[in-house]
Amino acid sequence: MNKSTFYISAPFDTYSGYGARSRDVIKSIIKSDKYKVKLMSQRWGNTPWEFINNHKEEWGFLLNHLHNQEDQKIQPDIWMQITVPNEFQPIGKYNIGMTAGMETTLVDATWVEGINRMDVNFVSSEHSKKAFLDSKFQKQEKGQVVGTVKVQKPIEVLFEGANLDIYKPTKSDFDLSSIPESFCYLFVGHWMQGNIGEDRKNVGYTIKSFLETFKNTPSPPALVMKVSGSGASYMDKKMLLKRYYQIRKTVKGKSLPNVYMIHGELSNTEMNELYNHSKIKAMISLTKGEGFGRPLLEFSLTKKPIMVSGWSGHMDFINPKFSLIIDGTLKNVDRSAIVPNMIIPESQWFSPNDSSVGNGYKSIRKNYKKHLELSKRQAHYSKSNFSWEAMDILLSSYLDKNIPKFAKQVTLNLPNLNTSKKLELPKLK
Q1: Mean of pLDDT values over 383-406
Q2: Segment 129-136 mean pLDDT
Q3: Residue 147 pairs with which residues in a beta bridge?
Q4: Rounded-to-integer distance, Cα 26 and Cα 8, Å
Q5: H-helix or E-strand containing 189?
């Protein structure tokens, strides 16, 4: 049987959320054994790469599918790009775009145009799909409105499934011996651009609200932050520490609780051990918006409480009955967080309510047994509905539904040419 050629361009060799997503999707497509898969590795901003070489035991099989120079001469039957939509380019006979989408209410016009260049598109959450469908722009030529830019191509929601072999309750050997506190909240995420309370992950606000909530408190809890900025370098760490101390100076009190930073890259196994450490009691995410929220899903499988903003992509899997949901309102994105061709001024995202945040912190500590019991139900819900295996089945069904059948390639046997005379080359003097 002639298999259709399936080319995938993705940052699968990077230490990033998009890298993890890419590897999961590629693994699923290779596992189906329906296609001849070829891979093209792409960078992802300033994130480190060489992930595959550092994790060959689990992911080395991907190296067998790298494309070569000869592969470039043939148009692929199927072409998939896993990246931001303004980079989508149709190269194959059938073209698939995959993206986490946008964390705000709207996407940039160039993203809508990118979606429309592909035959079908996959996003990570219902929130992301809605952001695309709600985004409509006037199309102008020579100063005249000639139409509307809006989504014309189909969008499917494909969640990011968790690896249940890795993310689960387990004994932890992660070293937190330098932290004396026995009750710690955990934050995981990138500290991106934006003023205090205006960066997407809301890191600055998370720090300040924690300090304000537990200042002047006898034996306060601690906040552990697994955080990075643009990379895992020493300079990145130094810059984040500087931002932290600037925030700490704004909080007035006789005594302030401790905040600890874990900087740099951790393996999936190390992350699960961090999640499961006995000192880590709950995960906190006061995010302004998520395309999906992968760390929240992973942490939920440890059966520990989660306190999280009640809006955007993670609400596909966070059950409000089993997790502590923070109230808030949608507000315009601050100028400090605007990114050209990505986060646009017209868009909005979540702003947590201060009292809801403070009460949430206190409730988890005061009523921990109650929240712990509810978190067990969240873990069961996540495990039952959002595993990698469930994602694999859904992806397979989407591909079967959307990808057309391609004509079989036929090998041509050309006849031998008969000549009446033997051809001789002239002799050179």
Answers
A1: 96
A2: 97
A3: 139
A4: 8
A5: strand 184-190
Only one residue has tokens 């809801």, namely: 356
pLDDT at 426 exceeding the cut of 60: no
Question: pLDDT band at residue 47, thresholds of 50, 70 and 90?
Answer: confident
Contacts of 105 (CB under 8 A, 6+ apart): 131, 134, 330, 347, 348, 349
Answer yes or no: are the C-beta atoms of 292 and 159 closer than 8 Å. Answer: yes
- The total of other beta-carbon atoms located within 10 Å of residue 20's CB is 19
Angle at the Cα of 93 (from 10 to 125), degrees rounded to 5? 45
- Extract the tokens encoding 318: 């966070």
The candidate with the shortest Cα–Cα distance to 194, out of 84, 110, 263, 289, is 289
Answer left, alpha or beta for residue 143, where phi above 0 means left and psi between -120 and 50 means alpha.
left
d(CA 331, CA 223): 27
Residue 416: pLDDT band by 50, 70, 90 thresholds?
Answer: low
Helix ranges (DSSP H) in 8-108: 17-32, 51-54, 56-59
Domains 4-158+389-402 and 184-385 share a fold: yes
Report, at the CATH architecture level, how domain 184-385 is classified: 3-Layer(aba) Sandwich (3.40)
Burial class of residue 148, CB neighbours in 10 A (0-12, 13-18, 19+): exposed
Query: Which tokens is 409 given?
Result: 């390639």
Handedness of CA 343, 345, 348, 354 (dihedral sign): positive
40 Cβ neighbours under 8 A, 6+ residues apart: 7, 8, 9, 10, 66, 67
As a whole number of angstroms, the distance between CA 117 and CA 68 comes to: 26
Measured distance CA(25)–CA(14) in Å, rounded = 14
* CATH code reported for the domain at 4-158+389-402: 3.40.50
Do you know the residue count of the chain?
429
**Domain boundaries along the sequence of the chain:** 4-158+389-402, 184-385
Q: Is the pLDDT of residue 216 over 80?
A: yes
